[in-house]
Q: What sequence folds into this?
């Protein structure tokens, strides 16, 4: 999602596979090029359900077979215990945030205590060769690594660290706010709006963040641009 366009993502997956990566999370690259695909659910999947356990169970129903579950959306250790309770044939768990080295050791103990010594631990989250080497040097019991941004883009030509997170979900006509609580990646729940205030000369003075139902001084900056997969807002010209 951080490459320079969808086709760049496919070509990056191709290059990484040639260079030795065993699989890609880019399903289109798998379909077009025959590269093995691998991955887990997104944090938005976890947040779309009322409980983490429900999200895990629904995922296993949707994708039967050995599952890899994402355990760091709210609390990594609690997530590991929930995953161990939900799945007796758990293939792997993924940690995507926090201090991964000590967290992985605690997760390993949780899995082993549940009789899941065969379950692998996968790390991800802005990893590169230096961070991976440091994790291994610190004795982190990690079995695999998911590397994205720093594999397909050059950090010295910076990428935009933009992440999509679910903020609100509609259920039977009622909107429910959701949030992610993992360390360093916590989000604020609920639909948002940004209000931009300008001075008399047209210069920008400040932006204020509000909930979607609030009204503040200034011009609202956020508007819906797509509905049901169709663009509904005219695009600006070059």
A:
């Amino acid at each position: 999602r951080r490459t320079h366009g969808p086709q760049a993502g496919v070509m990056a997956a191709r290059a990484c596979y040639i260079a030795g990566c065993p699989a890609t999370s880019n399903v289109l690259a798998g379909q077009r090029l025959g590269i093995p695909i691998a991955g887990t659910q997104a944090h938005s999947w976890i947040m779309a359900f009322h409980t983490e356990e429900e999200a895990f169970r629904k995922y296993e129903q949707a994708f039967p077979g050995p599952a890899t579950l994402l355990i760091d959306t709210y609390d990594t250790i609690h997530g590991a215990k929930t995953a161990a309770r939900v799945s007796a044939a758990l293939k792997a768990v993924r940690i995507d945030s926090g201090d991964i080295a000590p967290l992985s050791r605690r997760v390993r103990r949780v899995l082993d205590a549940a009789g899941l010594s065969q379950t692998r631990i996968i790390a991800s989250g802005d990893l590169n060769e230096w961070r991976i080497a440091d994790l291994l040097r610190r004795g982190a019991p990690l079995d695999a690594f998911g590397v994205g941004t720093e594999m397909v883009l050059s950090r010295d030509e910076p990428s935009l660290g933009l992440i999509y997170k679910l903020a609100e979900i509609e259920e039977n006509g009622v909107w429910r706010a959701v949030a992610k609580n993992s360390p360093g990646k916590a989000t604020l729940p609920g639909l948002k709006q940004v209000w931009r205030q300008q001075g008399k000369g047209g210069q920008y003075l400040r932006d204020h963040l509000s909930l979607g139902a609030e009204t503040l001084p200034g011009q609202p900056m956020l508007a819906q641009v797509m509905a049901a997969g169709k663009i509904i807002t005219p695009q600006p010209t070059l």
